[in-house]
């Protein structure tokens, strides 16, 4: 029997299995998925593409989908119905397969955006239960997902549970009714969560459609203005990721200042207005952690509004982007009496 946590985010899939050790199996890849178009089948090189056969369809995922599919051919990861959909499940099965989980019984926990949790967690949990069959990159899968408590969690709150588990001071604050706040900066969204006594404070938990994609879009607009080069979002995202050395019009360019300006525009106005409007004076009584893939960029500007906010240190466990999935595994194991290393 296996145990795994898989976070099929709007921008990236993050997953971990077995336990919380440094060497525990973990994977991450872009949340890009779409059906293999008929015109590609039989073409030169197409037979070598790693595909996934699931639900009577053939899918490309991750980097392979980025390279071979156009924007209109990939699933929309931003819609309210994304979590639990068939393409979402395709990505989840790939993550399990790459961690060596392809047969037998599995304890699984996953996450959804805060805005989707209340209305959708029961339906998503129900769709996960039972047997699933697929062929992932040539490897047959036949596994059964077991029923467990808290199989579906809000992504932002999940990160707080792992942060607390690693810090005795945070546990003491929580046990004495203090507030632990988290800001989870993702690719397309940023989630806000607050715990009191280890339980979510629901009216202080929310989310906003602002993340590193907003930054990339702004950087793309600046590049168009400077160089006359039109970029789609995925091209702009790659330039943000490789910002220190980008090849444009025959020269190497450092886009760090463009990225910083774009982050400031996203954070200083709409994001912080939303957070301050939600938390208000309660923020003065919080310990605030910033985590997620975009946390290193966003944190300095968040600290201008909340000086005590801190970047959650995650140098040894895959970085802050893995914090929510580590929290999911921590919380799920505790609720279900399972031992994880």
Automatic annotation (TrEMBL):
CDD domains hit by this protein: ASKHA_NBD_ParM_pCBH-like
Stored Pfam families: ALP_N, MreB-like_C
Family annotation (InterPro entries): ALP_N, ATPase_NBD, MreB-like_C
Transmembrane domains' residue ranges: none
Coiled coil: none
Annotated Actin-like protein N-terminal domain residues: 5-156
Domain Actin homologue MreB-like C-terminal: 183-297
Name this polypeptide is given: ParM/StbA family protein
């Amino acid at each position: 029997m296996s145990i795994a946590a898989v976070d099929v985010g709007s921008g990236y899939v993050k997953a971990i299995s077995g336990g919380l050790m440094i060497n525990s199996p973990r994977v991450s890849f872009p949340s890009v998925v779409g059906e293999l178009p008929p015109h590609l089948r039989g073409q030169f090189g197409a037979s070598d593409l790693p595909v996934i056969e699931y639900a009577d369809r053939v899918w490309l995922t991750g980097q392979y989908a980025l390279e071979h599919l156009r924007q209109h051919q990939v699933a929309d990861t931003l819609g309210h119905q994304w979590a639990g959909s068939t393409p979402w499940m395709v990505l989840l099965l790939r993550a399990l397969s790459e961690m060596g989980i392809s047969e037998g019984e599995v304890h699984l926990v996953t996450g959804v955006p805060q805005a989707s949790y209340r209305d959708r967690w029961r339906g998503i949990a129900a769709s996960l239960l039972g047997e699933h069959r697929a062929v992932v990159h040539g490897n047959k899968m036949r596994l059964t997902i077991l029923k467990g408590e808290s199989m579906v969690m809000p992504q932002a709150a999940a990160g707080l549970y792992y942060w607390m588990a690693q810090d005795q001071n945070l546990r003491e604050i929580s046990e004495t009714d203090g507030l632990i706040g988290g800001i989870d900066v993702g690719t397309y969204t940023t989630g806000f969560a607050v715990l009191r006594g280890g339980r979510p404070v629901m009216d202080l938990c929310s989310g906003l459609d602002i993340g590193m994609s907003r930054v990339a879009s702004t950087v793309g607009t600046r590049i168009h203005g400077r160089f006359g080069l039109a970029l789609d979002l995925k091209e702009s995202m790659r330039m943000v990721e490789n910002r220190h050395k980008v090849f444009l019009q025959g020269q190497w360019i450092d886009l760090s200042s463009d990225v910083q300006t774009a982050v400031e525009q996203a954070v200083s106005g709409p994001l912080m207005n939303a957070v301050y409007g939600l938390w208000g004076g309660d923020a003065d009584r919080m310990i605030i952690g910033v985590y997620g893939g975009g946390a290193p960029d966003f944190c300095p500007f968040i600290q201008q509004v909340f000086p005590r906010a801190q970047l959650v240190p995650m140098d040894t466990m895959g970085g802050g982007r893995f914090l929510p999935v580590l929290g999911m595994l921590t919380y799920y194991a505790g609720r279900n009496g399972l031992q994880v290393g």
